[in-house]
Amino acid sequence: MTQAQAVRLEQTGSPEVLTFQEVDLPSPGEGEIQIRQTAIGLNFLDIYHRRGGYGAPLPLPSGLGVEGVGEITAIGRGVTDFEVGQRIAYVGGPPGAYATMRNLPAARALAAPEGIGNAELAAIIFKGLTAEYLIHRCAPIRKRHLVLFHAAAGGVGSIATHWMHRIGATVFATVGSEEKAEIARANGCDYVINYNEQDFEAEVKRLTKGRGVDVVFDSVGADTFDKSLNSLRQRGLMVSFGEASGPIPPVGVGTLGAKGSLYLTRPSIAHYTNVRDEYQAGADNLFRAIRKGDVKPPRITTYPLADVQKAHADVEGRRTIGSVVLLP
Asked: Where is the Enoyl reductase (ER) domain (predicted)?
């Protein structure tokens, strides 16, 4: 048994429900590795879990967090692809990334690429894999596609918009401030719309001469959903992959027909990475893109792991830019 420190969730609610505790960590079981974590990614999925929303609620009490980078300290029976001392990154598996040490199914571990630091890798692995499945497998983006991406200066948005720019798509971005607009422009977005100053639906229609875009990627949810549908061309695709502003009300199937025979999907990274070969292939694609410069790590804001309540409050209040990383 090893001593570790971990964030625990005893009940759902505001950031104050998160507690930082000493915990006993058993030896890794069959098919598991034990890692000493060096950097932990904070994602909006963690906030959904803390609130008790977004799919099946976590069984409580629970750990929190699904992404990290660390060094293997012990290996359980049956693990042959990794060794003690190896640096790995991971996405998925049982929640519990908010910890100094943890056990993890070896099937979720990815050999960390050289040349990317721990905080950088933690900032990009989950968000980069999210961008990868969204723009390469969920809605494959090609040269000359017209794409609207909401929250373009965030962690996923910064990665996806720059990657689509390198592909040759025309990228329409929404942001909430001039500072975030500058980030979106630096990432190659062709048209940047401040939703606090402009109606993004009207602006997209104006810029496309009434046609609309081919694809909308929307992680904002309730505040943007209807206008996002209205921003699509006929037979366009709406990719709704989050609900930062709140749950989306039920949508009648007939609405999609009335608005132009639209397509609507609600993807989850879990369903694009739960097969090991697909998970590894997505990571390989991401790491290649980083080496080529098609993907650049987003800006990083770091917090000590012990300050997890403040980190959650700042992300929830949209006071951060880029990716947030917790440091044990």
From this structure: 13-326
- Please tell me the predicted confidence (pLDDT) of residue 138: 98
pLDDT digits (tens, 9 = 90+) for 196-224: 999 999 999 999 999 999 999 999 989 99
First to last CA, the chain: 20
Judgement on whether residues 106 and 132 belong to the same structural domain of the protein: no
Helix (H) or strand (E) holding 227: helix 225-230
The residue range of the domain holding 50 is 2-116+297-327
Number of domains observed in the structure of the chain = 2
What pLDDT digit, counting tens, does each position of 252-287 carry? 999 999 999 999 999 999 999 999 999 999 999 999
- Positions of E strands within the chain: 2-9, 18-25, 32-42, 67-75, 87-91, 101-105, 109-111, 146-149, 170-175, 191-194, 213-218, 232-240, 263-265, 300-304, 323-327
The angle, 0 to 180 degrees and rounded to 10, between the axes of the packed helices 276-292 and 118-132 is 110
- 147 with 243, same domain: the answer is yes
d(CA 247, CA 3): 39
Residues 145-163: tens digit of each pLDDT = 999 999 998 889 999 999 9
pTM over 0.85: yes
The answer to the question of residue 185 being in a domain is: yes
Query: Residues for the chain: how many in total?
Result: 328
Give the type of residue at 256. L
Here the CATH number for the domain that contains residue 110 is 3.90.180.10
The residues of the chain scoring below 70 in pLDDT are 54-56
Q: Do 88 and 155 fall into the same domain? A: no
Q: Which amino acid is at 17?
A: V
Q: Is residue 274 part of a domain?
A: no
Q: What is the rounded distance in angstroms from the CA atom of residue 104 to the CA atom of residue 76?
A: 10
Examine residue 109 and state whether it is found in any structural domain, yes or no: yes
